[in-house]
Amino acid sequence: MSKTALVATCLREAAAIDEFLAALLGQTRKPDSIVILDAGSDDGTVERIQVAIGSGAPVTLIVQPGANRSVGRNRAIEAADADLIAVTDVGSLPQ
Fold first, then answer.
1. pLDDT tens by residue, 37-58
2. What pTM was estimated for this model as a whole?
C-alpha cells in the first residue's frame, strides 16, 4: 500500500487543532504522516500540536512565521515523505 501524508497550514487555530487532529487520527485509514505548517500562531496552537506529537501522533510541525497559505502548503508538501499527499485546512473536519 502506498504511503500517505496529509498536509495543512494553520494560523491561530488553538480552538480547532485538537478536534482536527482527533478527527484525522480517528479515520479508518489514517495518514502515515501529517505535516502541519504553522504561520506564526501566538494563541497556543503550536503548543497543542507539540502535545499531540509528544503523545505519539505522527505529526511533523514546521513553524514559518509570515507564511501565507500557498507558501505554507508548498513547504509542507516538500516535507512530506509519501506517495500520496492530501491537502486540507485546520478548521475543517474530515468525515
1. 999 999 999 999 999 999 999 9
2. 0.94
Which cell numbers in the block locate residue 27? 479515520
Average pLDDT, the chain: 95
- How open is the CA angle 61-11-68, to the nearest 5 degrees? 90
- What's the order of all strands across the beta sheet hosting 59-63? 59-63, 33-38, 4-10, 84-89
